[in-house]
Amino acid sequence: MSEPVPYLDLRAQLKPLRAELDAAIARTLDNCSFCLGPDVAQFEKDFAVFCGAQHALGFNSGTSALHVAMRLLNVGPGDEVITTPYTFIATSWAISYCGAKPVYVDIDEATFNLDPQRIERAITPRTKAVLPVHLYGQSFDVDAITAICKKHKLPFVEDAAQAHGAKYRGKSIGTFGAVSCFSFYPAKNLGACGEGGALVTNDAALAARAKSLREHGSTVRYHHDEVGYNYRLEGIQGAVLGVKLKHLGQWTRERQRVAARYAELLADTPLQLPAVTPGSESAWHLYTVRSSRRDELKKHLDANGIGNAVHYPMPLHLQKAYAHLGHQPGDFPVAEKASREVLSLPMFPELTDAQIQRVADVVKGFFGQ
Ligand SMILES: *Cc1c(COP(=O)(O)O)cnc(C)c1O
Known about the structure:
single chain; Aspartate Aminotransferase, domain 1; 2 domains; binds pyridoxal-5'-phosphate; 4-stranded mixed β-sheet; 38% helix
């Protein structure tokens, strides 16, 4: 059998950076700035520049950044937040942590992102905000969502956990909503050596409050203005992220290379290949294809040593954790159909052309091509 192709190869990413990472981690050990500190502060500055935003704050996960984003918009018990049922569950956790209700709206068939056409019908007097996701690295329809939110005077938060470096009309995502949240989970496009996240905003007052909420609701030590959290980014992660951020632009271009090559090689297969939102540039966090024979195809890839994964096998409205919302199968048919048909192929910047070719050959073999 030919060489297996891993789904993700973090070792390949770390290897050329190892000396720089060792030095950055050693610097943290030397200065003992383990919670926030100078490396986190420098990374926050650099990440704000990367996003073209005024403020970026380091958090200990993308989930905690999303939670604080909801707090910044004063989302609380009795409130509703319109969001997508087709994402990683942390998007909805942020709403639930505030005692509010996630109100799901089905997705667009082609892009897997929140369908702007359906948002308006879901708005009620209790709607406090909208929380769309740039899923798989692909921006949602920013113009349409901005227009609807403006019309109804609702803020929106971008869940950009999968989309570092994605662009919409030439501008980095992360600056369109009132607040945007990123994850630095190791497998994300920019990953820490552990957990991490960021909250990005152009609003100085929101940034100041987020900084306080991140640190026990306090700006003056042992004086607490409101109920806050311990959501600080660790010093070591700030140092690691500072090293890796310098490579993110190049990594995104490599992901674009991989996506373009897959598109060429798989064009003649029965697979539905990922569509790109008009006017946008995907960050290609995942390369997710669709097939009505997904489960068989998955078995075939597994048997031939081709890494793959299903994002996501069950939409959020059907999760046990959200049974209390009372949803039934059939409530969001587009999301449910996607969950039966999607399959993510290997996607990381270091994938070689030979590996891409091998993935394509195995996929074509499945279809007898
Ligand atoms: C990864 C992810 C999160 C959560 O980020 P963590 O850093 O893992 O807490 C939130 N939303 C989406 C869409 C994600 O992919």
